[in-house]
Structure formats: structure tokens, C-alpha cells
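ESCALATION

Customer reports they have been waiting on this structure for their group meeting. Please prioritize. Original submission:
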Amino acid sequence: MINPEHEQAQKLSSQAALLLQRASMAEARRLFSRAARMEKQALGKIPSEKARTRGILSVSFAALLIKAEDYRGARKELPDLLRDATLPPASRRQIEDLLEEALQKDQDSSTVHKHAAFQAGIEAARKTKP
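Update from on-call: job pushed to the front of the queue and completed.
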């Protein structure tokens, strides 16, 4: 293993995947989120001259954010990863794809929340009519 944080991230991710199979979505997202934090710590310990390893951990971190459904976190963190000039092209493409997915899903989530708020407003207005 690369370092203890990466090893812990891998264990958490595996546990989360098992929870998904058992339909424990909230718990799985929580574990994916913890795994993402551990992977970010692991990435921070890899020197810049280890571009391939940094690329692998960067993609893993990005994917874990998506699995955790932390689309806002991905929108914030992934552009920072893409600023790394040493990032291998294949890793860069994968992170770009994951960022695009996060942007789309965050937008979809926002639309759903806006629609729900709109519907709630309509229902409240209907209840207040005499």
C-alpha cells in the first residue's frame, strides 16, 4: 500500500460498497465521504515527483466524492486537482469527467430541491386560502 491513509480509504470504500448492496445508502455515503477525506490526506503525503501515484490517488479521491454524493465538495475540490501541472493526462481526463458528472448531478439536485420548495410553497398557499 502507498501509505496508511490510502489503505484506510480503501477499507472504508469497500465497507461502503457492501452497505450499498444492503441498501444502506446513507451509511454508505457517510463511509465514502470518510474514505474521500482519508484519500485526500494520503494524496497530500505523496511528493510531486511521484506523478503517476498522485494521479491514481487524485482520481480515487474524485471518485469517492462522487460516490459519497458530495457534488458540491467535488465542484470545490476537483478544479484544485486539475491545477496540478504534473497530473498525468489520463488522470486529468478522468477527473474532468468526474467534475462534469458532479456539476450535472449538483444541478439536477438543485433543480429537484427548487421544485420541491416550489411545490411546498404552492401547497402552503392552497392551505391558507379560505
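Sent to customer with the following note: The chain has a mean pLDDT of 85.
Escalation resolved.
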